Amino acid sequence: MQTWKESVRSALALQTMPTIELVDHLPQFVDEAIEALRVAAEASPSPPSVDVGATAAAHGTQRLRLGFSLDAVVREYGLLHDALVGTALTAGCQPTFAELHTLHDYIIVGIANAVSEYAQQRDAELRRQANEHFAFIAHELRNPLSSASMALEQLEAMSLLPTHRLVTALARGLQRTVTLVDETLKLARLASGADLRRTPTSLRTIFADAEIGAIAEAQDKGIELRVTCSGDDRVDLDVRLIGSAIGNLVRNAVKYSNGGVVELRGRVENDRAIVEVEDCCGGLEPGKVEAAFAPFVRFDHTQTGFGLGLAIAKQAVDAHGGTLRVQNLPTKGCIFILDVPSS
Q1: What is the DSSP code (8-state) at residue 267?
Q2: Are strands 234-237 and 199-202 parallel, antiparallel or unpaired?
Q3: Crossing angle for the helix pair 55-66 and 26-42, to the nearest 10 degrees
Q4: What is the pTM of this model?
Q5: Is 268 within 8 Å of 322 (Cβ atoms)?
C-alpha cells in the first residue's frame, strides 16, 4: 500500500489529499485479492471465477464524491496492480502465470465495479440537477403565463377583444404553453423520485376516470372506446400517478388511432395489476418502438402535443417499481402494457 500511495500521489497529483481518504477501501480490496489468490491456488488447476463484493463499488462512490475523474479511478487500479506485482518481485517472489491471471481478473472486475457505480451515481446526480433546473424554469414561467391567460379571459368576458383569428391563435398559444409547463413540472417531479401515496382503490375506479378523459375526442373521431376489467380486486396504488399514466395511454391511443376500436383492459393476478391499452394507429415503424417513451418524441407530426405523455406514464410506472412496454402490431396498431405491483 505504501508503494501504491507513492505512485498515485505522483501520477495523479494528489499530494495534498489526506491519506485516510486516498487509501479508502483499497486495503480491504487487497485483502480480498489475497483471499482470491489463496482460493485459486487451492482449486488448482481450475481457479474459480473472480467474485468482487461491494468494496470496489463503494470505492467508486467515494471517488465520485471527492471529484476524481473516471480516468483517475481506472489508473489507480492499474497502479495497484503494478504495486502488487512489483512488491512480489522485490521480495524475490516470481508470480506464476495462474497467479498473474487471477490477479489480473480480480483487478479488471474491481475496475468494472468501481466505474459502474461511479457512473450510476454521477448520472443520477446529473439527472437530479437537470430535473431541478427544468422544474425551476417551469415554475417561474407559470406565474406570468397564468396572469396572461387570466387577463385574456377577462378581456374576452368584457368584450374588449375583436372576434379575430389572431385572438384565437393567441388563446391557443397560451393554453399550449401552460400545458407544456404543467407537463414539464410533472415529469420533473416524477424523475426526481416522487414519494408514492398508496391508497386502496380498484382498476375499475381508475378506468372510469380515464374513460371520461378520452370519451369526447373518441366520439369526435368516430372511435369506439371499449373498457373491460376482470374482477374488481382492490389494489394499493398512487391513484394520482397511475391514473395519470393510464389516462395518458388512453388519450394517446385515441389521438393516434384512425377510427376503429381503442381497448382499455385490466386485471389483477399474482399480486400484479396489469393494464393493456390497444389502439388502431397502424403500428410503429421499425426502430421507433425503443424511442416510444422518450420525452418530446412524437411519431405523427400532424398531431398536436409535446410528446410528454408516454414519458410521464413511464416515470409514474417506474416510481411503482413496475414496467411499461409496447407490443407492436404491424399495420394494425400497438398494445401498451402497464404492469405494476398491486400493493
Answers
A1: E
A2: antiparallel
A3: 160
A4: 0.51
A5: no
Per the listing, cell 398531431 goes with: 303
Return the C-alpha cell found at 19: 491519506
- Whether 300 and 334 have beta carbons less than 8 Å apart is answered as no
Per-residue pLDDT tens for 223-232? 999 999 887 7
Q: Which residues are paired to 278 by β-bridges?
A: 263, 335
Domains of the chain: 1-193 (no CATH), 199-341 (3.30.565.10)
| Chain centre distance of CA 29 | 31
Residue 225 φ/ψ region, left for φ over 0, alpha for ψ in the -120 to 50 degree band, beta for the rest: beta
- Residue 164, judged by CB atoms within 10 A of its CB (0-12, 13-18, 19+), counts as exposed
Closest among 186, 316, 244, 233 to 324, alpha carbons compared: 316
The Cα 250–Cα 229 span in angstroms is 15
* Residues contacting residue 164 through CB under 8 Å, at least 6 positions apart: none
Enumerate the H helices of 24-164 as residue ranges.
26-42, 55-66, 70-90, 97-157
The amino acid present at 220, given as its one-letter code, is D
What are the distances in angstroms from CA 324 to CA 56, 292, 311, 327, 335? 33, 11, 10, 10, 11
* DSSP letter (8 states) at residue 54: S
> What are the 10-residue block averages of pLDDT along the chain, 343 residues in total?
90 82 90 87 60 79 89 93 94 92 91 91 78 69 81 86 86 80 67 73 91 88 91 84 88 88 92 92 70 54 52 82 88 90 87
pLDDT in tens, 81-134: 999 999 999 999 999 998 999 899 899 999 999 999 999 888 878 777 776 666
Cα separation, 91 vs 185, in Å, equals: 63
Residue 39 exposed, middle or buried by CB count within 10 Å (0-12, 13-18, 19+): middle
